[in-house]
Each structure stands twice: as C-alpha cells, then as structure tokens.
Specification:
Shape of chain B: elongated
Number of helices of chain A: 11
Largest sheet of chain B: 3 strands, antiparallel
CATH architecture of the largest domain in chain B: Up-down Bundle
Helix content of chain B: 55-70%
Shape of chain A: globular
Number of domains of chain A: 4
Oligomer: heterodimer
Structural class of chain A: alpha+beta
Strand order of the largest sheet of chain B: 1-2-3
Distance between the termini of chain A: 22 Å
CATH superfamily of the largest domain in chain B: Ferritin, core subunit, four-helix bundle
CATH class of the largest domain in chain B: Mainly Alpha
Number of strands of chain A: 32
Number of domains of chain B: 2
CATH topology of the largest domain in chain A: Methylamine Dehydrogenase, Chain H
Strand content of chain B: 5-15%
Strand content of chain A: 25-35%
Number of helices of chain B: 8
Radius of gyration of chain A: 29 Å
CATH superfamily of the largest domain in chain A: YVTN repeat-like/Quinoprotein amine dehydrogenase
CATH architecture of the largest domain in chain A: 7 Propeller
Number of strands of chain B: 3
Structural class of chain B: mainly alpha
Distance between the termini of chain B: 37 Å
Largest sheet of chain A: 5 strands, antiparallel
Strand order of the largest sheet of chain A: 1-28-27-26-25
Order of helices and strands of chain B: HHHHHEEEHHH
Chain lengths: 673, 302
C-alpha cells in the first residue's frame, strides 16, 4: 500500500496487460511521451481493457473436486489474495462462527459460544483481543459507538452467560433477545443490559437515524418459536385476530438511549406485513396481462381482489345476476341492465366481501417474521427479507417503518437478506433455501433455487431483473446456499462479495442487473470427505480495503483484491480510499469517494473498458492527469482546472457523459484541495 | 317469508363466494399434538466441562499463513493437529445433549417427510400444472435432504434410524438398529400401508408402536391415509393440483405442529442441530403453506 503511485502503476500495467505499448506509458512518466512516434500512437489507440462480458474465465472450474480437510483442505483462489487464516481460540473451536461487525481496527466475530474481538491492524496476522464466553445462537453482532449488540435466539442462552444451558420450557434464567455490551474498553467488554423479546433474535439490524443523535434503534428479526407467556409475560402466539398483542406477524423495534443503554426497551412492534398480498410470481407476466385484456374485450367480468385484477368465473357471475333479478322482483333471464348494474356494483360487492367483518373469515397475514432487514438510512429505505416475501420499507420514521412494496417468487423458498447497491436503485435478495445447513449447490440443484434475485427499484417499486447463484457445483458434503455479503466500493460499479457457506466466497458485478458476472472467488474442499459437516463462509464483508470472512469452522480469513481483467489496480486503489469508522452490514453505509487521482484513473479505466470514450482521448487524459499529479503548487491546481474544462468539453463525445462529469468533478475537487 | 328465503339463499351464496375467495383458509390451529409418555431423560453434556478444561489449557492460537522457517512450520503443523483433535472432540461431545423428544421428533419427521415425497413424486406423472410441478420438485429436493440429515443425526447418537422405502404409493419404513444393543429388534419392519387410520385430531399420539418397536407414522398430524393417497394417485391435471395443494397444506401444518411440540418440551431442541432443523422445518413449511394457499386462490379465480 505504500509503494509510490508510479511504481504501482507500472507494476499493475505489467501484470495486467504485459503489452508492448506499456513502454510508452512508462515513457510518459519520464516526460518523453510527446516524442511518441505515429506508429506508437497507433498501438496506443487499441484498447487493452476487455469488456467484462468478454473476459475468459478459468475452465474447467478449479472449485470442482477440491480435497477435503478441516485445516488442510485443498483451496483455490482467483483474483484475490489470501493474507491470513486464523483459527478460533481453543474454547471456540468446534462451535459455529457466525456474523461479523467492525469498529476501528477491530473485527468482532460472533460464535454460538459468545464473541471474539480481533485486532486486524496487521491483516496478515490478526491478533485475538478477547474471546468472550457467553453462549447463545446465533450471536450475530453489531456495533455502534461504544456499544456492542449480540443476538440470542437458541433455547440454551442464559442471562448469566453460563454454559450449562436451560432445560425448562419456561425459565427466568433464559435469554432470548438482544444482549448489550459496553466496549469503551474493547479488551474488557461490560455486559450492561438485555432486551428480551418474544421470539428471541435470530439476527438484528442497527438503525442510526440521521435526525436523532441520542438514540439508536435495533430492528429484531427472527422466526423462531414464540416463548411461553410464563417465561416472558405478554408473549402470545395466537393469531392477531384472537390476541392483538400476538408476537406473530410483526417485527420489534428497540430504542437504545446512547447515554443510558441500560434503559434500552422495545418501543414499537410494527405489523409491516398487514394486508400483504403479493402474487406468487414477480408480477403479471405478459401472457397473464394479455389474458386479462382479452377477457375484458370479450365483456367478461373482471374485478380486483387481493390486489390483483382477476377474471370472475362464470358460475359466480350467473349467481350474482340471479340475485339482481330477484332483487328487482323479476324472473327469468337477466337483462342487459342487470349486467350493467352488476358491473357497477362488483367492486363494492367484492370490497364488502373481502373486507367485511364476517367472523368466519380468515384474514390474510402474509409472512410471520423477517429473517433479516437491511437498513439503508441514507436513502430512507430498508429491504426486508421476510419468509416468502421481499419487502421494501420506508424507514424515514425509524420507529414506524412502512411497507411500500412487496415481491414474492415461486423460485424463492425463504427470503434471507437484502443488499442495496450504493445508489439505492437496485436491491439484491438472497434465498437461504434449506437454512444454510443443506447442500443446495449440487450440479442437479436448479440455478434459480437458493440463489440471489436482483431487482431494480423505480418509483418505490421493485422490478425483477435476474437470478445469480454460485456457478461452481459443490459436493453433497458441502452445505451451500446464498448467504451474507456486502458491497465493495469500486466507484461507479455495483460489486459485491458474498458467502456461500462451503461453496466459499465469490465476488460478482451486478452493475447490469440483468446480467450479473462472477469476477473472483475463493473456495476450500469439504471439511469431511464422507459426510456433511457444518462449515464454510457465514459472512464476508469488505472493510477498509480488506475482505474479511467468518468461516464457521476454520476461523477468520482476510483477503484483498488483486487486479485482474475485471478490476484494475486503479479501481482497487479508489475503493481503498473509502474508510469507515465502523460497519454493520445490515445497516448499510453509503460509500463516498474522496477526490483522488486513483478515482480519476479508475473512471478512465472504466471508460476504456466499456468503450465509452475513444482511446486517443483516454490516453491524452491519462497523461495530463499524471502531469498534474506530478506538478507543484499553484501549477497543480491550474492544470487540474484546465483538465476539468477539457473533460467537460469532451463529455458529449462520450457515450457515458455522466461518468465524464464525475471525472471533471473529481479534477475540480482535487484542484480545490 | 319469500324475502327471507331469498335472503337466506343470498347469504348462503355469499358464504360460498367468500369461501371461494378464501379457498384455502386452513388456519394453523394452536392445538398442540403431543407424544405421550415422554420421559425427559437428559444426558448431561460434557460440553461445559470441555469448555472449562479448554479454558484452563488455553493457548491462544494465531496462525498466519506465512510461516517462514521450517521450525515454525513444524510447530504450526503440531498446533493444527492439536486443534483438529479439539475440534472433533467438541463436535462429538455436542452430540451428547439430546432428549427422547428430540429423538422422537427426528424419527417421526422422517416418516412424515417420506409421505410428502410420495405425494410430490405424483406431480409429474399425474400431469400437474407447472407451478405445482415446481413446488413438488422443491419439496422433494428439500425433504430428501432433510431426511438424510435426520437419519445422520440419529445414527450419530446411536439411535434406531428409520430407513425409508417408497414403492409407488406404498411407504415402508424399516428400522436400522444401532450396532450395540437392541439386536432383538433387528427384524422390525412396519408397513404403514396397512391398518392406517385417519385420526388427525392429534391430541395424543399412539405411542405403542414408537421407540424401540419400529414406527407407526399414521397418527402424526397431517398424515394422509392410504385411501387419501390412493385418491390423489388417481387424480389428474387441475383436479390433482387442487387436491395436492389441499393435502400438502394439511401435511405441512402437521410438520409445523410437530416442531411446535418439540419446542414445547422441557430440555428439547437444546441440541444445536435439532434446534436449527426444527426451526427451519417450521419456518420453511409455514412459508410454503402461505404460498400454497395463494396458489389455490389463484387457481380458483381462473
């Protein structure tokens, strides 16, 4: 990371392209670029970056057929560098490692036995700061300020952190909910309080309200069984129509006062699922729409119920018409007027029937709980992965999230988690089919099952774009399905790293939501060659230049990206200018790229890769940027401002004038800095 | 009087229509079905003890991939071997904390899942619609894997393992006995196609055929009788779809009740794998129930 830019630029080019014309670029460093001959200029006009759809990938896939082993499994890696693998401390060995959170130089790793704090200042050798023994599954972790939040769902979690479990169905010793620790001194976490919840906490999400600096909010997710009332008063698993305080069909929002976390308490239990009725598909297919149109043209009765236009079957129409005839005291065949009257009345009639207070009627509740809710406060949205549905929530009022859209999908078993792209105009949902403990990436498992589904968001509505699943088939001995991940801040691209349990981790580009492309991976063979043993990547997140992986059995892996035909060193450098003070992947941060030469060069690489600007202009801009970078004092600002104007004037010549303007903006900001 | 009868018939019609709109209102009853005669026999876990000894002898293990000298490499090798030993010992000890209720849940659920396979296997043969075929394929994939997991769970704990054999509509479950003891039951084989009854009230489960003496799955909630299976086997196309969904909703609700029962038993589901499996079965099937209800409603509106 400390190499000077010139050297790195050279190395990068040598590694990536290894082409003759590189000499020219090197020459330009030495200030002799103006002497380039016309022959060289011609070579220079050839683009050397390949569009990512055309890059060749390793075949056969080296992830197939890896040898098994716990700490000595065969591994394969592509476009990543593994910096370290650190096994869990002794008393956490053989117990499931779970989610990750980050604060400063620390990675906090959950484990069903408690949590571990790692100092990752030296990513090649993470140091264990503390292993805090306090069993509860899943021990998913989040941080905010000096507080650490830990989820407890399983039946064996104890208030006193004891390891003996709890045997009774109802016990006052059991903890299911959120544990809160003060980590002002991270070496000595202080257990300050608990918030017990009716269904415990499988996971949770911390919401930082931009308008409230006194509190944070924790959305509790989980679909485990409701606790008996004897254990936690007020918990009811009755249907809401029988008990309005039922713990079903709602989420819980905990308010945590930052000055007095011991006063943390549930402030609301919004029923965000109420009246949810989404079609079992992504939406009406063109064929469905055509059928409805045809029915209307034929004069059949069409009316909306359960949020969707449907054709009313003739047998009901006939009976309804008879009712109308009887009503006017008539007999015989219904007349045209009767038909018209029915058409007029139909919407009200249906509304009355479906919304009536008939005691016999069953209300539609939709999903019962959410698995994960990803909060993206900067865009005011949250993605709820809630059983059979993917929800889009408006979270401008943190205590009162409002559902604005819902999708369902017959290919999705169980909506697990959501990740927005940085702009907030796309969302990716994962389907944790089989709960993470089943091998769902075998060659015969369909690519739409246990996969990601990508949606674009327009005007608060989600539109399905594509599926994406780990493309390398895994053995029946490897639990594998889509799991947690996070964005990697490659500017102007939507790139994500994701866990696939024993399918390993991979990185893919979903900038084009209809055509996601895998660009890097790491995978190990199964833990056990003969049988499925729970393991693999639980969570993998990008944090300040590194990719940190919580491996269920093997511990903590730290990776970094290496330049490839998919990502240039400039793009990696630009990503690494993004620094976060802390990270909870379920509370998505908005990445902001400070103006840097790396950013400018990354934009230029992208313009070249995507064929969005002619090579002559690209090379000339590259040279000018280098010249400005090496200039001193007021000359620097002058050159940068000139460049900004030049880029703006060329913007219309590019097929991506938006990126050109971002590039110009970067120049201006560099000039001003 | 005439008016009243018109109102009456209108009311009947409306109820009929509402039922049609809400076709699939199969409310999950919060009525628990219990295995009878459970003796909560806890095998005290060695886990806590292991942890304490682990703590006492704790040497923080940090392994960098980059090991420069041969000596360090040797040391690393030894450390990994030691860690591997601890890992497997702990995995083994985690298998020692379970109750009769966990065993009965696994044993029962294997047979329950097996019937779902029989039903789902019919879908392609009986010309189910594409949506039902997809659902059935998913159920087969999911429940086959879960059966394997539950069998492994039982085998790991030295318990009798139900082995499923499916021949068309006939389900045969034989018990594979653990290597030690119980050899007097080796020949147990139970053919559930005979003597099935249709008691789904499920307040009490007939326990006489459970445990060491093989399996009788017929009294579990949501199980179809052989007649119902045969009936389903005779249906085709849309008729099959409708019946399949109705039966599968009941069947899934049965599995949900079985999971609830497990969670409602002292000391049960403390085993990590059992908790996860039962919780997953519960939530997956609840989700699928909602989806099937929706499919039924859509089917009725066409």
């Amino acid at each position: 990371m400390n190499k000077n830019n010139t050297t790195r630029y050279f190395l990068h080019k040598k590694y990536t392209y290894g082409k003759l014309w590189m000499l020219l670029v090197l020459a330009s460093f030495l200030g002799v670029y103006s002497c380039a001959s016309s022959e060289q200029m011609q070579q220079q006009s050839q683009s050397t970056l390949t569009p990512i759809t055309e890059v060749e990938i390793p075949t056969p896939d080296p992830r197939v057929g890896l040898q098994a082993g716990l700490f000595d499994a065969e591994e394969t890696i592509w476009n990543l560098r593994l910096l370290s693998t650190t096994p869990p401390p002794e008393n956490f060995l053989g117990v499931t490692n779970s989610d990750l959170a980050f604060k400063g130089n620390y990675a906090i790793q959950g484990n069903y036995n408690g949590f571990m704090v790692w100092d990752i200042s030296n990513p090649a050798q993470p140091e264990l700061v503390i292993d805090y023994l306090c069993p509860a599954s899943q021990s998913d972790v989040s941080v905010y300020g000096d507080l650490l939040f830990v989820s407890g769902e399983g039946l064996g979690g104890r208030l006193d952190c004891g390891t003996e479990g709890v045997q009774e169905v109802a016990s006052e010793e059991r903890l299911r909910g959120i544990r809160i620790f003060d980590i002002t001194d991270i070496k000595n976490p202080l257990y300050v309080s608990n918030v017990q919840t009716c269904r415990g906490s499988h996971t949770h999400s911390v919401l930082v309200d931009p308008d409230d600096d006194e509190n944070v909010y924790v959305y509790v997710s989980g679909s485990a069984p409701v606790r008996p009332e004897d254990e936690l008063p007020g918990c009811s698993s009755a249907l809401p129509e029988d008990d309005p305080n039922s713990a079903l069909f709602r989420i819980e929002v905990i308010q945590v006062p930052l000055d007095s976390p011991e006063d943390a308490a549930i402030v609301s239990s919004p029923r965000i699922f109420e009246d949810l009725e989404a079609p079992p598909e992504h939406g009406l297919s063109p064929a469905d729409i055509a059928e409805l149109e045809q029915a209307k043209a034929e004069g059949r009765f069409v009316a909306e119920f359960y949020g969707r236009e449907r054709i009313i079957p003739d047998r009901f129409v006939t009976r309804l018409l008879v009712n109308i005839v009887e009503e006017r005291g008539g007999t015989g065949e219904p007349t045209e007027a009767d038909s018209t009257l029915l058409r007029e009345r139909l919407p009200d009639l249906l509304a009355e029937m479906t919304g009536g207070n008939d005691g016999e009627e069953e209300q539609q509740y939709g999903p019962n709980q959410c698995h994960d809710i990803t909060l993206y406060p900067e865009v005011g949205l949250a993605g709820g992965a809630c059983e059979g549905y993917g929800l889009l929530l408006d979270i401008s009022d943190p205590a009162a999230p409002v559902r604005i859209d819902a999708v369902a999908d017959s290919n999705f078993a169980y909506w697990h988690s959501a990740t927005f792209n940085n702009e907030g105009d796309k969302v990716l949902f994962t389907d944790e089919w089989g709960g993470g403990s089943q091998p769902k990436c075998r060659a015969e498992d369909p690519m739409e099952w246990g996969a990601n589904a990508i949606f674009s968001i327009n005007g608060g509505k989600m539109n399905f774009e594509s599926y994406f699943k780990l493309p390398a088939p895994q053995t029946p001995e490897e639990n594998c399905v889509a799991h947690n991940g996070s964005l990697i801040p490659i500017p102007d691209r939507d790139i994500m790293v994701q866990s696939w349990y024993q399918g390993g981790i991979n990185i893919f580009d979903w900038t084009d939501p209809a055509n996601p492309i895998e660009i890097a991976y790491h995978d190990r063979g199964p833990i056990d060659p003969n049988r499925m043993q729970m393991g693999g990547s639980w969570s993998v997140y990008w944090y300040n230049g590194y990719i940190v992986n919580s491996e269920i059995a093997r511990g903590l892996d730290v990776f970094e990206l290496t330049p490839s035909d998919f990502i240039t060193q400039n793009e990696i450098d630009a990503a690494n200018t993004v620094t976060l003070d802390y990270l909870n992947a379920q509370g998505q941060p908005k990445f902001v790229w400070p103006a840097s030469y790396a950013l400018a060069k990354a934009y230029l690489d992208q313009l070249e890769r995507n064929r969005e600007l002619d090579m002559m202009s690209i090379n000339s801009l590259r040279s000018s940027i280098l010249r400005a970078e090496n200039a001193n004092g007021s000359r620097k600002a002058e050159l940068l401002n000139e460049l900004a104007s030049e880029i703006e004037s060329k913007a219309s010549a590019s097929s991506n004038s938006k990126k050109m303007n971002k590039l110009a903006e970067t120049m201006k900001n560099l000039a001003a800095s | 009087m005439a008016n009243e009868s018109i109102n009456q018939s209108r009311k009947l019609f409306l109820i009929n229509f509402i039922n049609y709109l809400k076709m699939s209102s199969h409310k999950i009853q919060n009525r628990y079905y219990r295995f009878s005669g459970i003796r909560t026999q806890l095998i005290v876990t060695l886990f806590a003890g292991m942890l304490i000894s682990g703590l006492a002898g704790c040497s923080t293990s940090e392994m960098a991939v980059d090991t420069s000298s041969a000596e360090t490499a040797d040391q690393t090798e030894r450390d990994f071997e030691k860690m591997e030993e601890i890992y497997w010992a702990r995995i083994d000890s985690s298998k020692m904390s379970f109750t009769d209720a966990d065993v009965e849940f696994m044993t029962g659920m294997i047979g329950h899942h097996a019937q779902a396979l029989i039903m789902s296997d019919l879908a392609p043969k009986n010309n189910a619609g594409p949506a039902v075929q997809r659902l059935a394929a998913r159920i087969i994939n999911a429940q086959k894997d879960e059966i394997a997991t539950m069998q492994r769970w039982l085998r790991d704990r030295n318990q009798p393992v139900p082995v499923v054999e499916i021949d068309g509509l006939i389900l045969t479950i034989s018990m594979e006995m653990p290597e030690e003891g119980m050899d007097d039951n080796m020949d147990m084989e139970h053919d559930t196609s005979h003597g099935m009854d249709h008691d789904m009230s499920g307040d009490e489960m007939d326990h006489s055929a459970m445990g060491h003496h093989g399996m009788d799955h017929s009294n579990m909630p949501g199980m179809l009788t052989q007649e119902q299976l045969n009936e389903l086997g005779r249906l085709n196309g849309e008729e099959f779809d409708r019946k399949f969904l109705l039966y599968m909703i009941d069947h899934h609700q049965g599995a949900v009740i079985m999971s609830d029962t497990l969670f409602d038993t002292d000391g049960a589901a403390l085993d990590e794998q059992a908790f996860r499996l039962a919780a997953d079965i519960k939530v997956d099937q609840e989700t699928e129930i909602e989806r099937m209800k929706l499919m039924l409603r859509n089917m009725e509106s066409e």
